[in-house]
């Protein structure tokens, strides 16, 4: 991160302008320009973008805080979800409108969005029109007059990001108030749990009048305004500005004039991005500088060495342009010529970055906390302790009950008409309360992700070595202690822990299941100790709620097992078990034998015909497809057994490999030593074609990695790409270089859009320290977890919020993403060693 030179900072100067400190005139909007409608149908002005339904509410997760009308002010997205809502303070799964279409009325320069609540037969349009002073008008027209039954329910909401307003003030007409750091009410006294407004009844609201960078004024021509703190209902809520729609209202049911303050001639300061863990002496070292197109960018940068006597300039060099990506221009600063070990920083445009190292061991332990802390913290059915800190009591010891048929779960799990299970709906399933990893911040076991963790750790050990012991794991006592070595390699113990769950599923059902997840939304939203999410006692319907008898209780909090037999999942588990059998051969030969036998049986069930997805969906283009999983499982069984049956099957799967090479390249290359020359020649051809396509795709951004532009940020894809490309480099060094892998590790450790934080918490000198994990309500982090990272908010805003943990698509740690990072980090260390 950049630190300003000793001088009055820009933010201090701007605040002085706003409040009229001596020597500073009060800021004025006199020079604010009119907004214009962009080709992407947004409203644009200097320092302001109004995004109008370019991002829609999710059909699965509903309210992700990235939909409706959104305001990007002075480079930060401060407001979202401008839409008609049926709740004063909607929670994530509250009803959301369906987006029907967007158009531009050129006669009035107005962007028009049509939406509807189909179940409520409530259709409407929102008209957004620029006004003359950098402001814009929002008007809501209903398709028919609002029924009396909807009065008090339907209203227009606009949500403001709490972390942008903590500790700041607001004005409702002339009455002032303070945005609270912690939600403290007021709450309705009727038992509903609904927040009451912080302020209401006025027709004018100003947020942060003291701060020119975040000040926004809203005036209502229709009903009065209310301001709510939605965090009083759910921690991921925002500050909500709302106008209710009156009964019988139709045209101009709501009319707002929104006036964001625009700082005259505002420009975003450059972001100098680099690998926060540093660089090894011999490798390429290129920082990227992200530039506001209006910033007068210097054409030189300096590398300074930090020593006991301060800063010493060791390199002054020209930057080179890297083109436009999203809304920013990029320049590169190449300091590869500097090889001397030491502590350095980059100086650009009068500012100096935080420090980083050049050292031979720069990457020697960048994977450590991911293995011995994050993955340990995600272990299910265990109690986890780290010195004085208890991360979790033994969790989910009441696993699990059979999920009902024909059910779509709020987290996306689906159960069709067939249970593929010997158990009745709601019946307790014995044997599942062992092993496994909680996938993310929501405490579920996702079977394919667990299989991925096992395989990643096996590969990291076999390909690069992962000899590390900082954790004690006692499966029988269900006890984990971080920072307490027990003489057994941590990776082996984690592989064994994952294998326990995968084997349990096979022994109970004869196939892999989809996963295990909380049955109720309130329970699913639990934050904190995983051990307190359930009572740990098997549910008995004969007991009253809260009644306890022996190891049973009448509390129906046991997680549900979704037991659909999907070939893709069983094949993924077959591959993981085959790999685990290699890793466990010395330490637990009995489990190794059991894992291998299960892997063979699961694999054999899917080899009688074309492998189908099993749930009626076409998943052939997915990295989790059944065809991809079949290749992976076949390769793992070949590596484990050296049996010709698997080599023969892999030859017959070569058309699948060619068609899905982006997902099967790694396993296909790992099989090379056990296959013939014809197979190698085919894989070499696929590698050449893949490299051509990859280079073509990577030309769209300056970072040298694939950047996803969907609804979930793409760190997982980046680290998986880095690990795969190192395997291709090892097998075909004349075709694939090692720069792809180093670019991938540079990206996740700081060289990415939006900011320069390492996306792996606590790795590097500046890292992501507010993440979405079990402890997200504490605005804290889990060491070693990799967050999804940079989301491209459509049409063109790269975003990676640093101070708000509840945007899961940017901040949510997942266990398989982090295990993929461990593999990529070890690959990067090998690549850097090669570059010496």
Characterization of the model:
The protein has 836 residues and is an alpha+beta fold. Helix content is 25%, strand content 24%. It has 16 helices and 43 strands. The strands form 9 sheets. The protein has a 9-stranded antiparallel β-sheet, with no helix packed on it. The chain has a 9-stranded antiparallel β-sheet with strand order 7-8-9-10-19-16-15-12-13, with no helix packed on it. Strands 1, 22, 23, 26, 27 and 28 form a 6-stranded antiparallel β-sheet that branches. Helix 3 packs antiparallel against helix 4, helix 7 packs across helix 8 and helix 11 (661-670) crosses helix 12 (677-698). The protein starts with a strand and ends with a helix.
Write a compact overview of the structure shown.
The chain is of the alpha+beta class and 836 residues long. It is built from 16 helices and 43 strands.
């Amino acid at each position: 991160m950049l630190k300003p030179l000793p001088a009055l900072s820009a933010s201090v100067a701007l605040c002085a302008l706003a409040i009229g400190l001596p020597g500073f005139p009060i800021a004025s909007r006199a020079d604010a320009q009119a907004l214009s409608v962009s080709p992407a149908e947004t409203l644009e002005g200097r320092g302001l973008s109004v995004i109008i339904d370019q991002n829609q509410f999710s059909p699965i997760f509903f309210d992700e805080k990235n939909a409706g009308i959104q305001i990007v002010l002075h480079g930060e997205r401060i407001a979202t979800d401008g839409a008609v809502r049926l709740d004063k303070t909607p929670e994530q799964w509250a009803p959301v409108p369906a987006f029907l279409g967007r158009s531009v009325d050129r006669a009035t320069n107005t962007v028009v969005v049509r939406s509807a609540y189909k179940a409520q037969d409530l259709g409407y349009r929102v008209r957004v029109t620029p006004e003359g002073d950098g402001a814009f008008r929002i008007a809501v027209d209903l398709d028919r007059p609002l029924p009396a039954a909807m009065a008090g329910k339907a209203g227009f909401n606009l949500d403001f990001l709490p972390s942008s307003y903590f500790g700041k003030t607001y004005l409702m007409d002339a009455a002032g108030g303070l945005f609270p750091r912690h939600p403290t009410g007021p709450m309705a006294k009727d038992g509903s749990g609904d927040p009451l407004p912080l302020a209401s009844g006025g027709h004018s609201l100003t947020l942060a009048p003291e701060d020119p960078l975040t000040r926004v004024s809203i005036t209502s021509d229709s009903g009065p305004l209310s301001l709510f703190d939605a965090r009083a209902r759910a921690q991921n809520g925002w500050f909500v500005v709302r106008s209710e729609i009156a009964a019988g209202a139709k045209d101009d049911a709501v009319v707002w004039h929104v006036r964001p303050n625009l700082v005259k001639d505002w420009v975003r300061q450059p972001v100098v991005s680099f690998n926060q863990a540093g660089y090894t002496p011999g490798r390429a070292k290129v920082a990227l500088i992200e530039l506001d197109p209006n910033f007068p960018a210097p054409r030189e940068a300096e590398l300074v060495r930090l020593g006991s006597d301060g800063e010493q300039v060791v390199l002054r060099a020209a930057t080179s342009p890297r083109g436009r990506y999203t809304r920013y221009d990029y320049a590169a600063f190449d300091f590869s010529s500097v090889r001397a070990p030491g502590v350095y920083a980059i100086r650009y445009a009068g500012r100096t970055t935080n420090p980083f190292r050049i050292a031979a061991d720069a990457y020697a332990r960048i994977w450590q906390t991911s293995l011995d802390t994050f993955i340990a913290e995600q272990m299910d059915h265990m109690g986890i302790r780290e010195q004085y800190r208890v991360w979790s009591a033994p969790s989910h010891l009441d696993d699990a009950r059979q999920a009902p048929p024909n059910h779509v779960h709020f987290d996306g799990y689906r159960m069709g008409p067939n249970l593929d299970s010997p158990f009745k709906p709601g019946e307790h399933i014995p044997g599942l309360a062992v092993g496994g990893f909680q996938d993310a911040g929501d405490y579920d076991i996702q079977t394919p992700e667990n299989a991925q963790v096992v395989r990643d750790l096996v590969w990291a050990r076999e390909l690069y070595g992962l000899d590390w012991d900082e954790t004690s794991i006692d499966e029988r006592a269900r006890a984990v202690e971080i920072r307490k070595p027990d003489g057994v390699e941590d990776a082996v113990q984690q592989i064994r822990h994952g294998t326990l769950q995968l084997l349990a599923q096979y022994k109970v059902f004869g196939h892999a299941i989809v996963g295990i997840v909380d049955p109720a939304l309130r329970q699913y939203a639990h934050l904190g100790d995983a051990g307190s999410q359930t009572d740990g006692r098997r549910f008995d319907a004969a007991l009253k709620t809260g009644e306890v008898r022996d190891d049973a209780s009448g509390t129906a909090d046991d997680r549900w097992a979704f037991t659909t037999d999907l070939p893709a999942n069983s094949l993924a588990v077959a591959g993981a078990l085959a790999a685990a059998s290699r890793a466990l051969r010395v330490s637990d030969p009995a489990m190794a034998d059991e894992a291998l036998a299960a892997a063979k049986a699961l694999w054999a069930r899917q080899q009688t015909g074309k492998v189908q997805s099993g749930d009626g969906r076409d998943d052939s283009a997915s990295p989790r497809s059944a065809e991809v999983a079949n290749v992976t499982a076949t390769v793992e069984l070949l590596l484990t057994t050296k049996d010709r049956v698997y080599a023969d099957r892999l030859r017959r799967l070569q058309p699948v490999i060619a068609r899905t090479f982006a997902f099967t390249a790694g396993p296909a290359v790992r099989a090379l030593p056990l296959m013939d020359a014809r197979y190698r020649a085919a894989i070499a051809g696929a590698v050449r074609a893949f490299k051509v396509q990859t280079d073509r795709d990577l030309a769209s951004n300056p970072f040298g990695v694939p950047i996803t532009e969907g609804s979930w940020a793409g760190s997982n894809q980046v680290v998986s790409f880095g690990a795969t490309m190192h395997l291709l480099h090892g097998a075909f060094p004349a075709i694939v270089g090692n720069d792809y892998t180093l670019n991938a590790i540079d990206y996740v450790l700081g060289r990415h859009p939006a900011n320069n934080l390492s996306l792996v918490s606590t790795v590097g000198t500046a890292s992501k320290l507010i993440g979405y994990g079990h402890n997200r309500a504490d605005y804290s982090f889990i060491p070693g977890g990799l967050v999804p990272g940079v989301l491209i908010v459509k049409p063109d805003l790269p975003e990676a919020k640093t101070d708000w943990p509840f945007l899961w698509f940017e901040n949510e740690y997942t266990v398989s993403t982090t295990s993929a990072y461990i593999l990529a980090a070890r690959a990067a260390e090998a690549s850097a060693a090669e570059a010496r």
